[in-house]
Amino acid sequence: MDLLISMMATGSPEEFADKLGIKRSTLFETIQEMKLLGLDIKYSISRQSYYYANNKRIKIRLETCYSA
Predict the structure, then answer these.
(1) How many helices (H) and strands (E) does the chain have?
(2) Does residue 68 belong to any structural domain of this protein?
(3) What is the structure's pLDDT at 18?
(4) 68 vs 54: CA distance, rounded Å
(5) In this structure, is residue 44 part of a structural domain?
(6) Mean pLDDT by 10-residue block, N- to C-terminus, for the chain (68 residues)?
(7) What is the structure's pLDDT at 32?
(8) How many domains, the chain?
(9) Which domain holds residue 39?
(10) pTM value?
(11) How many CB atoms lie within 10 A of CB 16?
C-alpha cells in the first residue's frame, strides 16, 4: 500500500482496492486509520491516484529477538 501511494500508482479507489485484494470500504477505513496516525494522504483526480501530501510515510520493521 505504501509503495503504491508513494509511486502515485494506486489508480482509482476501486482499482486500488482490487490491487490490494480488499473491499473498497476496507480501503477507505485503512486510509482513515493512516490519517489518524498523522499521514497526509490525498487523492489526485487528474492523476487518478492517492499520494502523500507531505514527506511522512509508514515504515514497518520486523526484527527477530533472541532471548538469553
Answers:
(1) 3, 2
(2) no
(3) 98
(4) 42
(5) yes
(6) 95 97 97 93 97 86 84
(7) 96
(8) 1
(9) 2-52
(10) 0.82
(11) 22
Tell me if 11 is assigned to some domain.
Answer: yes
What phi and psi values does residue 50 have, to the nearest 5 degrees?
Answer: -80, 155
Domain membership flag for residue 59: no
Q: What is the spatial distance between Cα 23 and Cα 2, in angstroms, rounded to a whole number?
A: 17
Question: What is the Cα–Cα distance from 5 to 28, expressed in whole angstroms?
Answer: 14
Nearest C-alpha neighbor of 3 from the set 59, 54, 67? 59
By 3-state DSSP, what share of the chain in percent is helix, strand and coil, each rounded to 5? 40, 10, 50
pLDDT of residue 21: 97
Residues 20 and 1: beta-carbon distance below 8 Å: yes
Q: Tell me, what CATH number does 36's domain have?
A: 1.10.10
Are 41 and 5 in contact by the 8 Å Cβ rule? The answer is yes
